[in-house]
Amino acid sequence: MKRPAALVALIFAVLTALLVAPASAAYGVRIEVLSTPRPDFVSDGNALIGITGRNLENLTVELNGRDVTDAFTRTAGQLVGLVRGLVVGRNTVTAGEARLGLTNYPRSGPMLAGPHETPYICGTAGFVTLAKVKLGPATGPDCSVPTRVDYLYRSTVDRSLKVLPATKPADLATTTTSDGRRVPYIVRVETGVINRSIYEYAVLHDRAEGAPSALRPPSGWNGRLIYTFGGGCPGGWYQQGSATGGINDDVLLGRGYAVASSTLNVFGVNCNGVLAAETMAMTREHIIETIGVPRQTIGWGCSGGSYQVFQIADNYPGLLDGIIASCVFPEVGFATLHTITDALLLDHYFQSADGWSDAEKQAAAGFGKVGTIANLAAAGRRIDPRVYCPEQLPVEQRYDPVGNPDGARCDVYDHQVNIWGKNASGVLRRPLDNVGIQYGLAALNAGRITAAQFVDLNRAIGGFDADANFVPGRTVADPSAIRTAYRTGQLLNGGGGLANTPIIDYRQYLDELPNGDIHLMFHSFSLRQRLIKANGDADNQVMLVQSGESTAGFNSSNPVVLSALKALDQWMDAMDADNGPGSAHARLVRNKPSSLVEACWTPQGAKIVEKQVNGIGTTRCNSLYPVWPAPRQVAGASVANDIIKCQLRPLSPADYKIRFSAAQWGALRKAFPQGVCDWKAPGTGQQRPTGTWPAF
Length: 696
Known about the structure:
Helices cover 26% and strands 19% of the residues. The chain is globular and about 90 Å long. A hairpin with a 2-residue loop joins strand 7 (72-75) and strand 8. Strands 12-11-15-16-18-17-19-20-23-24-25-26 form a twelve-stranded mixed β-sheet, sandwiched between helices. Strands 1-2-4-8-7 form a five-stranded antiparallel β-sheet, with helices on one face. The chain contains 18 helices and 28 strands. The chain is α+β, with helices and mostly antiparallel strands.
C-alpha cells in the first residue's frame, strides 16, 4: 500500500530525531557526547562521553559490546571518559539500560562535505610550526604527517615565542589570565593533520604539570577556545595549504585562551563553507578530547573568515557560541558573488560604452567610488575556471576548453561541486542569475543617468556562460541549485544557530578608498536584515565602526576589539547562567551587557554612541561612513540581498520618473522579454532551510 507523502515525511522526521538525539537516558542514567554537538557526526575513532544520573555506582559501560568502564572517571557528579576504538560507521555505547548511537568518520574525512576534491596538493613540506620547524613531506593521499607537540615560552626580551629549554630560562615571561591567575607564559602547541587539513592550536600550559587531558585541562587555560578563520577565496582550491588563520596572538594566549586554526579554514586555501565547517568540527572535537570541553568557543575572522563564522554558527549549531567578525559578508556564494559579478558585467560594459562620465558610472553601480567597479570586477573572475588556479597545481592538470577539457576547473562553483551537483549532461548546476535586473534603475529615477543610458545598459550588459565568458543573454540559475542554496543554508538565513549566537561586527570603513575595496559596509546591514526577517530582531548583532585610516585594525591589540572580546565573554557567561523562562533568543537578548553598545569612531578617535543605520547622511555615523548600495540595490533589491533569482512582472511605465520614447520603450521590452524583477515578491524558490547540519 502506498503511504501518503505526509505520513512518510512524519515517519522520516521521527526516525531522524531518534537517530540524532544528543543523549540517551533510561532508568535515571543519561549518556551524551561531550566532544561534538551531534552523536551522528563523530570522527577519528574517539569520543568524549559524559554519563549522568542517579545510579552511577558499579555502572558498566560498553562500546559495541566491549567493556570500556575503565575509561571513565567520576568528576563533578558525572562519569567522563574518552572512549577509543570506534569503528567507522555505526557504534553503540551502553550504560546500564541507557543506549546511545554514534556514527564515526575517519580522521581523514569526509564527514559533511562529500567526496574529497581531486587533484589535491599537499602543503606540509612548506608548513612552519610556531617552533619554527617544517612539518616535512606528507605521506599517503590524505597528506598526513606525524602529530607533534612543542613547548614554547614568551620572552621578556622581545616578546617572541622561543623553544622552551629543559630548565626554565631567565627571560621567561609571566602573564595574568582573564580569570586573574598569574602563570608562567609557557605555551603548549600541537600541530597535525585532520580532514586532509593542517591544524594547530596553542594554550598556556606548564610542561612541568605533565601532559594535559580532557579531565586535567592545561594549567593556564581560561576555559575558552578561540578558533581563527582566514580570509580570501580566489585561488583557494585543490590544495592543503601551508598557513592557518594564525594562533600566535600574544594578547589572546596571554589571557589564557586556547587559540586554534586549520589550513582549510583559510578561504585563500579553501572556499567551500561546508568543507570549512567539517574541518572546524573535526578539529574542535580533537582539541576537546585532548584538553577538555571549553566553556565557550568563539569564532574570530575577517572577510573570508566572516563567511565561515556566520555559516558555521547558523548551519551547524553547537560549534560556535559567540562571534567576533570583521570585514563582514553574510556568505561568499551570494552576497559576495552577486556583487562582484555584477561589477564585472558593468566594468565590461563601460569599457566599450561611450558617453558615460565617472559620476554616471558610479551612480549606476551604487558604490561609493567609481574605482570600486574595476576593483570588484577583478575579484569577479573567481567564477572563471581558468583564472585562479593555485600555483601549486601543475599546469597540465588545469582545465583548458581546448587542450584539457577534463582538467581541474579553478572556479568557486566547481570547487563546491558536492553542494551543487551536475545535471544529466554533466554540467555543474550554478546558482547565478541576473534575469530581469534593471541595472541603474534608482540612478535613472534620481536623474543621475539618462533614459538612453539606462536602456543601452540593460540592452547590452548580458551575462556569463559556464566558463565565465561574456555572452549577450542574461545568466540563468539552475532551479535545483537555487533550492539547494535555500534549503541547506548556503544562502545564509540567520534563523538557525545564529539566532541564539552573540555577534560583534567590527568594521574598518573602506567604501571610499580611492581605488575601491570589496569589503563594502552594506554587507553588515544585509546580515542585519536577514536576522530581522528570520527572528524578528537583530538585537544579537552589535556593530562597531572605525575609520579605514585607523592603524588599529582587526586584532586583539586594538582596544576596541579587546574591549568587545571582554564584553562577549561576559555576555556568554551570563547566558550560560540564565535559567529563566523564555526562548533561547530571549535569553540571548536580555543578557547583552549594558556596556556593549553600537558606536562609530571619528577619524580622530572620538567615540559616537548611536545605533548604526543603513543610509547616507541620516545619522552622525553614516554621515562619516556612508552605507553605499550595490548594483542590485540600485536595481531595487532589498539590502537583505537574499534573492537568488527574482520573480518577474511585466514592464510598467509607473516604475519610472521619466518618459521613454517609443523606440526606447521598444528596446526595453526587447531587453526584458519575460519582464523585470518584482523585488516585493519572494525570490523564485525562496524558502527557509529544512534543518541544520546539512551533509552532502
